[in-house]
């Protein structure tokens, strides 16, 4: 399933309208747990923030789904959730 440039731009704009930059203080208390569960060490801040905010992650990196603490969606799953595609 592919999308054209217009569909991509629409999806990106919808997503970016909901993006909020988080400070480290917002997830600091979850860093230790995140370091333990992150299959890729450099990705631990994303896991820490997801744990702190109780939110899923969006990535196409399959190995990040190989843990049980944070829900991880890939792009196809996100598109399906939007109902746009």
Walkthrough of the structure:
With 85 residues, this protein is mainly alpha-helical. The mean pLDDT is 93. Helix 2 (31-37) packs across helix 3. It has a two-stranded parallel sheet. The N and C termini lie close together (9 Å). The longest helix has 12 residues, at 5-16. It has helices spanning 5-16, 31-37, 44-53, 75-82; strands spanning 57-58, 72-73. The protein has 4 helices and 2 strands. It has one domain. Helices cover 44% and strands 5% of the residues.
Could you report the average pLDDT, rounded to the nearest whole number? 93
Strand content: under 5%
The major pleated sheet works out as: 2 strands, parallel
Residues in helix, %: 40-55%
Summed up, the helix count is: 4
Sum this structure up briefly:
The chain is mainly α and 85 residues long. 44% of the residues lie in helices and 5% in strands.
Descriptive labels:
mainly alpha; two-stranded parallel ribbon
Topology of helices and strands:
Layout: H1 5-16, H2 31-37, H3 44-53, E1 57-58, E2 72-73, H4 75-82
Helix pairs in contact: 2-3
